[in-house]
Amino acid sequence: MNRSTHDSPNWIHPIGSQVVTRVSVQRPHAGGSYPSGAVGIIAKAPTDHEHHYRVRFTDGFEVSLPHADLVLLADYKEGRIRNAIAQHDLFGRVILRCVIGSRAYGLDNEHSDIDRRGAFLPLATQHWSLFGVPEQIELDATQECYWELQKFVVLALKANPNVLECLYSPLVETATPLGQELIGLRDVFLSRLAYQTYNGYVMSQFKKMHADIRNQGQVKWKHVMHLIRLLLAGIRVLREGTVPVQVVEHRDALLAIRNGDMPWDQVERWRQQLHHELDLAFARTSLPEQPNYEAANAFLVKARHRALEQELP
Known about the structure:
Layout: E1 18-21, E2 25-26, E3 33-34, E4 39-44, E5 53-57, E6 62-65, E7 70-72, H1 73-82, E8 94-100, H2 102-105, E9 115-120, H3 124-128, E10 136-139, E11 144-148, H4 149-157, H5 161-168, E12 172-175, H6 177-184, H7 193-216, H8 221-240, H9 251-258, H10 264-284, H11 293-306
Parallel strand pairs: 9-11
Antiparallel strand pairs: 1-4, 1-7, 2-3, 4-5, 5-6, 8-9, 8-12, 10-11
Helix pairs in contact: 7-8, 8-9, 8-10
């Protein structure tokens, strides 16, 4: 079963949405209370999660509640089914586990988390069941996230940087025979589409950062560093047909950005130069117009057949 798009950390429930309370709600002047699980309607929505919603109940009573105390009615009902997935050990079905992020890039310090990503292959019976399987599973406490294999393959075909880095990470912790086969196929996912993916994401994020500077006078330097790193990576993907993970020669400059030691104007000049280099690399790349969908599909079909087996392939 797919995760709701409303699970996004930035999602704001719009006015008129039917919601269910996660907590009991007191009625100081009217007396009594609404139990956890009461249904209401969003009468007024905030602009962010720092502010509260105005929720109106069926009898007209209104109360102010934070985002964390509400869930959409549709998601609440779906969640009753989704929660049954907990009985399945999907983390035990991980076929590829690797480290990405700062530690893989060589940009870590003593405070850096270990970001683990990868893919899992559910049993066929789990796919066929009433409960289905989620597109991804997460362990927030240990910074782990794994995509269901089909989702992983689709994201890789779309040149998603996080997924591609899983396939090229030098820090592979777990790879079953099927996981090793997936790594061996990593070149089939590379295409000229990487240009649009890397370039488009960085451009959209810097547009938001310019707005942050105008409105707040500051940016998150760690995020800026990783956006510049993405441009550097995108250039090499197009030039060399490989996904670089370790930054090596650019490490000192990237750390200067993260520490706020590089002036914004200098960062902007570097970014513009990298966009130009990315354009040139795209014009000259030998990568195919599109990824090898046939090879990716053949692997997925094979994996689905293996999912009939109780033993993890």
